[in-house]
Amino acid sequence: MNLDFSVVPPFAGALAIGALWTILITALAGAISLIVGIGLALARIYAPGWIRALLAVPVFIILGTPLLLQLFLVYYGLSQLGLRLPAFFTGVVGLGLHYAVYNADILRAAILSVEQGQYEAGRALGFGRGATLRHFVLPQALYRALPQIGNNILVLLKDSVLVSAIGIMELVLSAQLAISRTFRPFEFYISVAAIFYLINLALEWALARITRRTEAMR
Amino acid sequence: MMTPMVELKGLRKVFGRLEVLRGIDMSVDKGQILSLIGPSGSGKSTLLRSVNLLETPTGGEVWLDGTRVNADLKGLAYERHVNGLRREMQMVFQQFNLFPHLTVMQNLTIGPMKLLGLSKAEAEARGEELLCKVGLAEKALAYPARLSGGQKQRVAIARALAMRPKVMLFDEVTSALDPELVDEVNAVMKDLAAEHITMLIVTHEMRFAAEVTDWAVFMDEGMVVEEGPPDRLFSDPEHPRTRSFLRKHLGA
Protein backbone atom coordinates (compact mmCIF):
# COMPACT_ATOMS: atom_id res chain seq x y z
CA MET A 1 0.00 0.00 0.00
CA ASN A 2 1.46 3.30 -0.96
CA LEU A 3 -0.19 6.41 0.43
CA ASP A 4 0.97 9.71 -0.96
CA PHE A 5 -0.67 12.77 0.51
CA SER A 6 1.41 15.06 -1.67
CA VAL A 7 -1.37 14.72 -4.25
CA VAL A 8 -3.70 16.73 -2.00
CA PRO A 9 -2.01 20.19 -1.68
CA PRO A 10 -2.44 21.12 -5.38
CA PHE A 11 -6.20 20.81 -4.80
CA ALA A 12 -6.14 22.65 -1.45
CA GLY A 13 -7.83 25.69 -3.00
CA ALA A 14 -10.69 23.64 -4.44
CA LEU A 15 -11.14 21.77 -1.17
CA ALA A 16 -11.14 25.05 0.78
CA ILE A 17 -13.85 26.44 -1.46
CA GLY A 18 -15.80 23.21 -1.04
CA ALA A 19 -15.40 23.51 2.75
CA LEU A 20 -16.66 27.09 2.63
CA TRP A 21 -19.73 25.97 0.71
CA THR A 22 -20.34 23.23 3.27
CA ILE A 23 -20.10 25.78 6.09
CA LEU A 24 -22.35 28.23 4.27
CA ILE A 25 -24.97 25.57 3.54
CA THR A 26 -24.89 24.37 7.14
CA ALA A 27 -25.19 27.90 8.50
CA LEU A 28 -28.07 28.88 6.24
CA ALA A 29 -29.93 25.58 6.56
CA GLY A 30 -29.30 25.65 10.32
CA ALA A 31 -30.81 29.13 10.57
CA ILE A 32 -33.83 28.03 8.54
CA SER A 33 -34.23 24.91 10.67
CA LEU A 34 -34.25 27.02 13.82
CA ILE A 35 -36.57 29.79 12.63
CA VAL A 36 -39.04 27.50 10.87
CA GLY A 37 -38.71 25.07 13.79
CA ILE A 38 -39.78 27.77 16.25
CA GLY A 39 -42.69 28.70 13.99
CA LEU A 40 -43.79 25.08 13.66
CA ALA A 41 -43.50 24.49 17.40
CA LEU A 42 -45.58 27.59 18.17
CA ALA A 43 -48.14 26.62 15.56
CA ARG A 44 -48.46 23.14 17.00
CA ILE A 45 -49.14 24.56 20.45
CA TYR A 46 -51.19 27.66 19.74
CA ALA A 47 -52.58 27.54 16.19
CA PRO A 48 -56.20 26.60 15.56
CA GLY A 49 -56.94 23.00 14.64
CA TRP A 50 -57.24 23.46 10.89
CA ILE A 51 -53.76 25.05 10.62
CA ARG A 52 -52.29 22.21 12.65
CA ALA A 53 -54.02 19.68 10.42
CA LEU A 54 -52.69 21.46 7.33
CA LEU A 55 -49.13 21.48 8.68
CA ALA A 56 -49.30 17.80 9.56
CA VAL A 57 -49.13 16.88 5.86
CA PRO A 58 -45.67 18.26 4.98
CA VAL A 59 -44.39 17.19 8.41
CA PHE A 60 -45.57 13.64 7.71
CA ILE A 61 -43.85 13.63 4.30
CA ILE A 62 -40.60 15.06 5.68
CA LEU A 63 -40.46 12.58 8.57
CA GLY A 64 -41.53 9.60 6.50
CA THR A 65 -39.20 9.81 3.51
CA PRO A 66 -35.41 10.06 3.04
CA LEU A 67 -33.90 13.52 2.73
CA LEU A 68 -32.04 12.52 -0.45
CA LEU A 69 -35.30 11.49 -2.09
CA GLN A 70 -36.91 14.79 -1.04
CA LEU A 71 -34.07 16.74 -2.65
CA PHE A 72 -34.35 14.69 -5.87
CA LEU A 73 -38.10 15.14 -5.94
CA VAL A 74 -37.97 18.90 -5.55
CA TYR A 75 -34.97 19.48 -7.81
CA TYR A 76 -35.39 16.96 -10.65
CA GLY A 77 -39.08 16.16 -10.16
CA LEU A 78 -40.31 19.75 -10.21
CA SER A 79 -37.99 20.66 -13.10
CA GLN A 80 -39.68 17.96 -15.18
CA LEU A 81 -42.94 19.76 -14.43
CA GLY A 82 -41.36 22.97 -15.67
CA LEU A 83 -40.45 24.50 -12.28
CA ARG A 84 -36.69 24.73 -12.31
CA LEU A 85 -35.44 25.86 -8.90
CA PRO A 86 -31.78 26.78 -8.40
CA ALA A 87 -29.81 23.87 -6.90
CA PHE A 88 -28.34 25.91 -4.07
CA PHE A 89 -31.76 27.22 -3.04
CA THR A 90 -33.28 23.74 -3.22
CA GLY A 91 -30.46 22.22 -1.21
CA VAL A 92 -30.42 24.83 1.55
CA VAL A 93 -34.19 25.07 1.93
CA GLY A 94 -34.62 21.30 1.68
CA LEU A 95 -32.04 20.65 4.39
CA GLY A 96 -33.40 23.49 6.51
CA LEU A 97 -37.02 22.34 6.35
CA HIS A 98 -36.05 18.74 7.03
CA TYR A 99 -34.29 19.68 10.24
CA ALA A 100 -36.94 22.25 11.13
CA VAL A 101 -39.33 19.36 11.68
CA TYR A 102 -36.92 17.69 14.10
CA ASN A 103 -36.21 20.98 15.88
CA ALA A 104 -39.93 21.69 16.15
CA ASP A 105 -40.47 18.52 18.18
CA ILE A 106 -37.73 19.49 20.60
CA LEU A 107 -38.85 23.12 20.82
CA ARG A 108 -42.47 22.17 21.36
CA ALA A 109 -41.54 20.10 24.38
CA ALA A 110 -39.21 22.85 25.62
CA ILE A 111 -41.91 25.54 25.32
CA LEU A 112 -44.39 23.36 27.18
CA SER A 113 -41.79 22.71 29.90
CA VAL A 114 -41.59 26.42 30.81
CA GLU A 115 -43.67 26.86 33.94
CA GLN A 116 -47.11 28.43 33.62
CA GLY A 117 -45.98 30.89 36.31
CA GLN A 118 -43.53 32.45 33.86
CA TYR A 119 -46.34 33.15 31.42
CA GLU A 120 -48.51 34.53 34.22
CA ALA A 121 -45.71 36.73 35.49
CA GLY A 122 -45.32 38.28 32.03
CA ARG A 123 -49.05 38.80 31.63
CA ALA A 124 -49.41 40.20 35.17
CA LEU A 125 -46.68 42.77 34.45
CA GLY A 126 -48.82 43.95 31.55
CA PHE A 127 -47.21 42.22 28.57
CA GLY A 128 -49.52 40.89 25.85
CA ARG A 129 -49.67 37.28 24.77
CA GLY A 130 -47.10 37.57 21.98
CA ALA A 131 -44.70 39.77 23.93
CA THR A 132 -44.84 37.36 26.88
CA LEU A 133 -43.92 34.50 24.58
CA ARG A 134 -41.14 36.49 22.93
CA HIS A 135 -39.52 37.96 26.03
CA PHE A 136 -40.02 35.24 28.64
CA VAL A 137 -41.24 31.87 27.39
CA LEU A 138 -39.29 31.44 24.14
CA PRO A 139 -35.85 32.46 25.44
CA GLN A 140 -36.14 29.97 28.27
CA ALA A 141 -37.39 27.26 25.92
CA LEU A 142 -34.45 27.91 23.59
CA TYR A 143 -31.93 27.65 26.42
CA ARG A 144 -33.49 24.37 27.50
CA ALA A 145 -33.56 22.97 23.96
CA LEU A 146 -30.06 24.15 23.13
CA PRO A 147 -28.17 20.87 23.69
CA GLN A 148 -30.53 18.90 21.46
CA ILE A 149 -30.80 21.62 18.83
CA GLY A 150 -27.00 21.70 18.82
CA ASN A 151 -26.92 17.96 18.19
CA ASN A 152 -29.30 18.39 15.29
CA ILE A 153 -27.05 21.07 13.77
CA LEU A 154 -24.08 18.69 14.04
CA VAL A 155 -26.08 16.01 12.21
CA LEU A 156 -27.19 18.62 9.68
CA LEU A 157 -23.54 19.44 8.99
CA LYS A 158 -22.90 15.82 8.06
CA ASP A 159 -26.12 15.51 6.06
CA SER A 160 -25.14 18.59 4.07
CA VAL A 161 -23.08 16.25 1.84
CA LEU A 162 -26.39 15.05 0.38
CA VAL A 163 -26.80 18.27 -1.58
CA SER A 164 -23.83 17.14 -3.69
CA ALA A 165 -26.36 14.80 -5.30
CA ILE A 166 -28.09 17.76 -6.93
CA GLY A 167 -24.76 19.14 -8.10
CA ILE A 168 -23.77 21.63 -5.40
CA MET A 169 -19.98 21.80 -5.25
CA GLU A 170 -19.64 21.25 -1.51
CA LEU A 171 -16.73 19.53 0.19
CA VAL A 172 -17.33 15.92 -0.88
CA LEU A 173 -18.12 16.76 -4.48
CA SER A 174 -14.98 18.93 -4.69
CA ALA A 175 -13.00 15.93 -3.46
CA GLN A 176 -14.62 13.65 -6.02
CA LEU A 177 -13.62 16.03 -8.75
CA ALA A 178 -10.02 15.92 -7.51
CA ILE A 179 -10.18 12.12 -7.33
CA SER A 180 -11.39 11.88 -10.92
CA ARG A 181 -8.22 13.72 -11.96
CA THR A 182 -5.73 11.94 -9.66
CA PHE A 183 -7.30 8.50 -9.06
CA ARG A 184 -6.34 8.79 -5.36
CA PRO A 185 -9.65 8.30 -3.49
CA PHE A 186 -8.13 7.29 -0.19
CA GLU A 187 -5.96 10.38 0.31
CA PHE A 188 -8.76 12.77 -0.64
CA TYR A 189 -11.51 11.09 1.36
CA ILE A 190 -9.25 11.00 4.43
CA SER A 191 -8.53 14.70 3.94
CA VAL A 192 -12.22 15.49 3.60
CA ALA A 193 -12.98 13.46 6.73
CA ALA A 194 -10.33 15.46 8.60
CA ILE A 195 -11.84 18.75 7.42
CA PHE A 196 -15.34 17.65 8.50
CA TYR A 197 -13.93 16.69 11.85
CA LEU A 198 -12.39 20.13 12.27
CA ILE A 199 -15.61 21.94 11.34
CA ASN A 200 -17.43 19.66 13.76
CA LEU A 201 -14.97 20.51 16.53
CA ALA A 202 -15.40 24.23 15.93
CA LEU A 203 -19.18 23.89 16.06
CA GLU A 204 -19.07 21.84 19.25
CA TRP A 205 -16.77 24.40 20.80
CA ALA A 206 -19.17 27.21 19.92
CA LEU A 207 -22.14 25.29 21.31
CA ALA A 208 -20.30 24.49 24.54
CA ARG A 209 -19.51 28.17 24.92
CA ILE A 210 -23.15 29.18 24.59
CA THR A 211 -24.21 26.42 26.96
CA ARG A 212 -21.70 27.59 29.55
CA ARG A 213 -23.11 31.08 29.37
CA THR A 214 -26.59 29.79 30.16
CA GLU A 215 -25.41 27.81 33.18
CA ALA A 216 -25.60 30.85 35.46
CA MET A 217 -29.36 30.80 34.93
CA ARG A 218 -29.87 27.35 36.36
CA MET B 1 -67.58 60.34 47.86
CA MET B 2 -64.16 59.07 46.91
CA THR B 3 -63.93 56.48 44.12
CA PRO B 4 -62.70 53.20 45.57
CA MET B 5 -59.31 52.04 44.24
CA VAL B 6 -60.57 48.50 43.73
CA GLU B 7 -64.19 47.54 43.65
CA LEU B 8 -65.82 44.17 43.07
CA LYS B 9 -69.52 43.92 42.35
CA GLY B 10 -71.22 40.55 42.45
CA LEU B 11 -68.04 38.78 41.32
CA ARG B 12 -68.63 35.17 40.33
CA LYS B 13 -66.20 32.53 39.11
CA VAL B 14 -67.12 29.03 38.06
CA PHE B 15 -64.62 26.29 37.13
CA GLY B 16 -66.65 23.64 35.35
CA ARG B 17 -69.31 22.75 37.90
CA LEU B 18 -67.38 24.18 40.82
CA GLU B 19 -68.53 27.59 41.98
CA VAL B 20 -65.40 29.16 43.46
CA LEU B 21 -66.69 32.70 43.93
CA ARG B 22 -70.39 33.21 44.59
CA GLY B 23 -71.06 36.88 44.31
CA ILE B 24 -68.39 38.93 46.04
CA ASP B 25 -68.89 42.61 46.79
CA MET B 26 -65.82 44.38 48.02
CA SER B 27 -64.40 47.85 48.04
CA VAL B 28 -60.83 48.91 48.74
CA ASP B 29 -60.00 52.57 49.25
CA LYS B 30 -56.87 54.27 48.05
CA GLY B 31 -54.09 53.61 50.53
CA GLN B 32 -56.00 50.87 52.27
CA ILE B 33 -54.22 47.67 53.22
CA LEU B 34 -56.56 44.76 53.13
CA SER B 35 -55.98 41.15 54.07
CA LEU B 36 -57.95 38.23 52.69
CA ILE B 37 -58.01 35.26 55.01
CA GLY B 38 -59.80 31.96 54.99
CA PRO B 39 -59.29 28.22 54.68
CA SER B 40 -57.65 26.83 51.53
CA GLY B 41 -60.20 26.44 48.79
CA SER B 42 -62.21 29.38 50.11
CA GLY B 43 -61.59 31.29 46.87
CA LYS B 44 -59.32 34.02 48.19
CA SER B 45 -56.54 33.41 45.65
CA THR B 46 -59.07 33.17 42.84
CA LEU B 47 -60.53 36.47 44.00
CA LEU B 48 -57.12 38.12 43.90
CA ARG B 49 -56.36 36.65 40.46
CA SER B 50 -59.72 37.92 39.22
CA VAL B 51 -58.76 41.48 40.08
CA ASN B 52 -55.98 41.49 37.43
CA LEU B 53 -57.92 39.06 35.25
CA LEU B 54 -55.46 36.19 35.43
CA GLU B 55 -58.78 34.48 36.03
CA THR B 56 -61.63 35.69 33.84
CA PRO B 57 -64.69 36.33 35.98
CA THR B 58 -67.77 34.31 35.07
CA GLY B 59 -69.97 37.17 36.19
CA GLY B 60 -69.91 40.47 38.00
CA GLU B 61 -67.71 43.53 37.68
CA VAL B 62 -64.13 44.41 38.56
CA TRP B 63 -63.28 48.11 38.82
CA LEU B 64 -59.90 49.78 39.22
CA ASP B 65 -59.87 53.45 40.18
CA GLY B 66 -63.08 54.18 38.31
CA THR B 67 -62.36 52.03 35.24
CA ARG B 68 -64.13 48.78 34.54
CA VAL B 69 -61.39 46.11 34.28
CA ASN B 70 -63.44 43.29 32.77
CA ALA B 71 -64.88 45.69 30.24
CA ASP B 72 -67.43 44.74 27.65
CA LEU B 73 -64.91 44.56 24.81
CA LYS B 74 -64.02 41.82 22.36
CA GLY B 75 -60.83 40.38 20.92
CA LEU B 76 -57.87 42.68 20.45
CA ALA B 77 -59.55 45.71 22.02
CA TYR B 78 -60.17 43.71 25.18
CA GLU B 79 -56.56 42.45 25.18
CA ARG B 80 -55.21 45.99 24.93
CA HIS B 81 -57.56 47.28 27.58
CA VAL B 82 -56.56 44.53 30.02
CA ASN B 83 -52.83 44.82 29.28
CA GLY B 84 -53.01 48.53 29.99
CA LEU B 85 -54.84 48.10 33.29
CA ARG B 86 -52.63 45.25 34.49
CA ARG B 87 -49.66 47.63 34.40
CA GLU B 88 -51.39 49.61 37.15
CA MET B 89 -51.92 46.67 39.48
CA GLN B 90 -48.93 44.46 40.04
CA MET B 91 -49.00 40.99 41.50
CA VAL B 92 -46.48 39.13 43.64
CA PHE B 93 -46.77 35.35 43.42
CA GLN B 94 -46.31 32.54 45.91
CA GLN B 95 -43.71 30.94 43.62
CA PHE B 96 -41.90 34.26 42.93
CA ASN B 97 -41.93 33.67 39.15
CA LEU B 98 -38.80 35.69 38.55
CA PHE B 99 -37.47 35.40 35.01
CA PRO B 100 -34.51 33.01 35.37
CA HIS B 101 -32.87 34.02 32.09
CA LEU B 102 -32.62 37.66 33.16
CA THR B 103 -30.42 39.17 35.85
CA VAL B 104 -32.05 40.71 38.90
CA MET B 105 -31.68 44.17 37.37
CA GLN B 106 -33.09 43.03 34.02
CA ASN B 107 -36.06 41.51 35.86
CA LEU B 108 -36.73 44.97 37.26
CA THR B 109 -36.13 46.99 34.09
CA ILE B 110 -37.82 44.96 31.36
CA GLY B 111 -41.34 46.04 32.33
CA PRO B 112 -40.63 49.76 32.70
CA MET B 113 -38.56 49.77 29.48
CA LYS B 114 -40.88 47.77 27.23
CA LEU B 115 -44.22 48.81 28.69
CA LEU B 116 -43.74 52.27 30.15
CA GLY B 117 -41.21 53.52 27.63
CA LEU B 118 -38.48 54.35 30.13
CA SER B 119 -34.92 54.58 28.82
CA LYS B 120 -32.43 51.99 30.05
CA ALA B 121 -30.77 54.58 32.30
CA GLU B 122 -34.07 55.69 33.80
CA ALA B 123 -35.22 52.12 34.35
CA GLU B 124 -31.92 51.16 35.97
CA ALA B 125 -31.99 54.18 38.26
CA ARG B 126 -35.48 53.16 39.34
CA GLY B 127 -34.28 49.55 39.70
CA GLU B 128 -31.33 50.50 41.87
CA GLU B 129 -33.51 52.59 44.14
CA LEU B 130 -35.91 49.67 44.60
CA LEU B 131 -33.15 47.12 45.15
CA CYS B 132 -31.79 49.36 47.90
CA LYS B 133 -35.25 49.53 49.38
CA VAL B 134 -35.54 45.74 49.58
CA GLY B 135 -31.93 45.44 50.72
CA LEU B 136 -30.53 43.69 47.66
CA ALA B 137 -28.52 46.38 45.90
CA GLU B 138 -25.48 44.11 45.68
CA LYS B 139 -27.44 41.42 43.78
CA ALA B 140 -28.27 43.53 40.72
CA LEU B 141 -26.09 41.48 38.37
CA ALA B 142 -26.89 38.05 39.83
CA TYR B 143 -29.26 35.62 38.17
CA PRO B 144 -32.29 34.56 40.25
CA ALA B 145 -30.92 31.00 40.55
CA ARG B 146 -28.21 32.38 42.86
CA LEU B 147 -30.69 33.87 45.35
CA SER B 148 -32.42 32.40 48.39
CA GLY B 149 -36.20 32.15 48.43
CA GLY B 150 -36.54 35.23 50.60
CA GLN B 151 -34.25 37.21 48.34
CA LYS B 152 -36.19 36.05 45.27
CA GLN B 153 -39.43 37.22 46.78
CA ARG B 154 -37.96 40.61 47.68
CA VAL B 155 -36.78 40.97 44.07
CA ALA B 156 -40.28 40.01 42.90
CA ILE B 157 -41.75 42.75 45.07
CA ALA B 158 -39.23 45.23 43.67
CA ARG B 159 -40.07 44.10 40.12
CA ALA B 160 -43.73 44.80 40.78
CA LEU B 161 -43.00 48.19 42.35
CA ALA B 162 -40.85 49.17 39.37
CA MET B 163 -44.08 49.52 37.40
CA ARG B 164 -45.27 52.16 39.94
CA PRO B 165 -48.63 50.44 40.28
CA LYS B 166 -51.71 51.88 41.92
CA VAL B 167 -52.39 48.58 43.64
CA MET B 168 -50.20 45.71 44.81
CA LEU B 169 -51.66 42.21 44.89
CA PHE B 170 -49.89 39.70 47.15
CA ASP B 171 -50.82 36.05 46.66
CA GLU B 172 -49.57 34.07 49.68
CA VAL B 173 -46.11 35.46 49.14
CA THR B 174 -44.50 33.81 52.16
CA SER B 175 -46.16 30.39 51.86
CA ALA B 176 -43.35 28.85 49.79
CA LEU B 177 -40.60 30.19 52.03
CA ASP B 178 -38.62 28.47 54.75
CA PRO B 179 -39.81 29.82 58.12
CA GLU B 180 -36.57 31.67 58.81
CA LEU B 181 -36.94 33.59 55.52
CA VAL B 182 -40.49 34.79 56.13
CA ASP B 183 -39.54 37.76 58.30
CA GLU B 184 -37.36 39.47 55.71
CA VAL B 185 -40.23 39.47 53.22
CA ASN B 186 -42.74 40.60 55.84
CA ALA B 187 -40.42 43.43 56.80
CA VAL B 188 -40.42 44.70 53.20
CA MET B 189 -44.20 44.55 53.12
CA LYS B 190 -44.44 46.44 56.39
CA ASP B 191 -42.32 49.20 54.87
CA LEU B 192 -44.71 49.37 51.94
CA ALA B 193 -47.69 49.45 54.26
CA ALA B 194 -46.13 52.42 56.03
CA GLU B 195 -46.07 54.24 52.66
CA HIS B 196 -49.78 53.56 52.22
CA ILE B 197 -49.60 51.88 48.85
CA THR B 198 -52.97 50.21 48.27
CA MET B 199 -52.43 46.50 48.95
CA LEU B 200 -54.56 43.39 48.76
CA ILE B 201 -52.88 40.60 50.69
CA VAL B 202 -53.93 36.97 50.61
CA THR B 203 -52.24 35.39 53.58
CA HIS B 204 -52.23 32.52 56.05
CA GLU B 205 -50.34 34.52 58.62
CA MET B 206 -52.86 35.94 61.04
CA ARG B 207 -50.32 37.75 63.17
CA PHE B 208 -48.95 39.55 60.13
CA ALA B 209 -52.46 40.42 58.98
CA ALA B 210 -53.34 41.76 62.41
CA GLU B 211 -50.20 43.81 62.64
CA VAL B 212 -50.00 45.29 59.14
CA THR B 213 -53.42 45.49 57.53
CA ASP B 214 -56.21 47.88 58.38
CA TRP B 215 -59.07 45.77 57.08
CA ALA B 216 -59.46 42.00 57.17
CA VAL B 217 -61.89 39.96 55.10
CA PHE B 218 -62.69 36.40 56.08
CA MET B 219 -63.83 34.21 53.19
CA ASP B 220 -65.23 30.70 53.15
CA GLU B 221 -66.74 28.66 50.32
CA GLY B 222 -66.56 31.49 47.84
CA MET B 223 -68.29 34.09 49.96
CA VAL B 224 -67.32 36.87 52.30
CA VAL B 225 -68.37 35.63 55.74
CA GLU B 226 -67.23 38.54 57.83
CA GLU B 227 -65.02 41.59 57.59
CA GLY B 228 -63.76 44.38 59.76
CA PRO B 229 -60.68 45.94 61.34
CA PRO B 230 -58.33 43.04 62.08
CA ASP B 231 -58.09 43.62 65.85
CA ARG B 232 -61.88 43.49 66.08
CA LEU B 233 -62.24 40.56 63.69
CA PHE B 234 -59.54 38.50 65.36
CA SER B 235 -60.47 39.18 68.98
CA ASP B 236 -64.24 39.20 68.66
CA PRO B 237 -65.45 37.36 65.54
CA GLU B 238 -69.21 37.28 65.13
CA HIS B 239 -69.66 34.34 62.84
CA PRO B 240 -69.11 30.78 64.11
CA ARG B 241 -67.17 29.85 60.96
CA THR B 242 -64.77 32.75 61.53
CA ARG B 243 -64.41 31.69 65.15
CA SER B 244 -63.53 28.09 64.35
CA PHE B 245 -61.09 29.16 61.61
CA LEU B 246 -59.35 31.63 63.91
CA ARG B 247 -59.20 29.14 66.76
CA LYS B 248 -57.20 26.82 64.51
CA HIS B 249 -54.91 29.52 63.12
CA LEU B 250 -54.32 31.87 66.04
CA GLY B 251 -53.65 28.95 68.38
CA ALA B 252 -50.68 27.85 66.31
From TrEMBL, chain A:
Glycoprotein: present as a keyword of the record? no
Residue ranges spanning the membrane: these are 12-42, 54-77, 83-102, 161-180, 186-208
Q: Which domain of life is it from?
A: Bacteria
Q: How does it sit in the membrane?
A: Multi-pass membrane protein
The protein's matches in Pfam families, at most eight in alphabetical order, are given as: BPD_transp_1
Matching InterPro entries, A to Z?
A: AA_ABC_transptr_permease_3TM, ArtM/GltK/GlnP/TcyL/YhdX-like, MetI-like, MetI-like_sf
- Where is this protein found? Cell inner membrane; Cell membrane
Q: Name one GO cellular component term.
A: ATP-binding cassette (ABC) transporter complex
Q: Which keywords has UniProt assigned to this entry?
A: Amino-acid transport, Cell membrane, Membrane, Transmembrane, Transmembrane helix, Transport
The record's listing under NCBIfam families reads:
HEQRo_perm_3TM
What PANTHER family does this protein's entry cite?
A: GLUTAMINE TRANSPORT SYSTEM PERMEASE PROTEIN GLNP, MEMBRANE COMPONENT OF AMINO ACID ABC TRANSPORTER
As for what it does, the entry says:
Part of the binding-protein-dependent transport system for glutamine; probably responsible for the translocation of the substrate across the membrane.
In the record, the note on similarity to other proteins reads:
Belongs to the binding-protein-dependent transport system permease family. HisMQ subfamily.
What is this protein's record name? Answer: ABC transporter permease subunit
